[in-house]
Amino acid sequence: MTGRPPVANHETKPLVAPPRRPRRSAEQNRAKILHAATLEFATHGYAGGRISRIVKKAGSNPRMIYEQFGSKSELYVATLESALGGLRTEELRLDLEHLDPLEGLLKLFDFMNGHFERNGHLVSLLRTENLMKARYMKKSPRIHEMSSPVLSMTKRLLARGVAEGRLAADIDPLRLYVMIAALSQFHLANVHTLSSEFDCDLADADWRASRREDARKMLAAYLERVEAPAGRA
After folding, report:
1. What pTM value is reported for the model?
2. Domains in the chain, start-ordered, CATH in brackets?
3. 10-residue mean pLDDT series, the chain (233 residues)
C-alpha cells in the first residue's frame, strides 16, 4: 500500500434515477381492474376468483379495488355489466332496420355468432352465472335496462316482415332472440365435452363455418312465411 489517495475515475457516469411511470387516472385504474377481473372470473368462476390475482394482473392494490368497487361481489357484478354491455353496445350500433326484415334478423345472428366466438370470456361468465341461478345478475338493474332496446329492435323487424307478407306471423320476439343466442353459443359453451364425445374438433375454423351456415339456413326456414298449398284454406 502506498498511502496515496485513489485516482478519480473520470469515466464513471453519475447515477440517474429511472424515469417514473406516469400515474394512471382513476378511470384507467378501473379499466385495468375490470379487465383483470374479467379474465379471473371467466377462468376460475366467482367462487374460485381471487382478489390477490386480480391485483397482480391489474398492477393495482387491494385498497384500490375496494375503493373502486366496494367488495368482491360488487366487482363481479361490474364485470358482468361490462361484458354484457360490450355485447349490447355493439348490437345497438348495427344498422339493420333499413334492410329487408329477414336479412336484418339474419345479420343479427351473424353478429351474435361472431361476437361470442371473439369473446369467449362472455360465454364463460354467463355459464358461471347460470350455475348460480343468476344470483348476482339479479342485483344489476343496468343489465335489465340494456336488454330492452335489443328486444324492441327485434320486434320492429318482425312486425315489418309480417306486414310485408315476408315473415311468419306467429313468432314471439323473445323466443326468437333466445333461439339466436342459443345458435350462437351452445357449441362454444360445450366445445370441450362435444369435441371429446364425438372425437371431432369443434374449435376447427372450417367446422365452425359450416355450422354457422347450417344455423343460418335453419333460422331463415323458421322465419319465412310458408304459403298454404293451392286449394287449401
Report:
1. 0.82
2. 25-70 (1.10.10.60), 77-223 (1.10.357.10)
3. 55 56 75 96 96 94 91 96 93 90 96 96 96 95 85 94 95 96 96 97 97 98 81 55
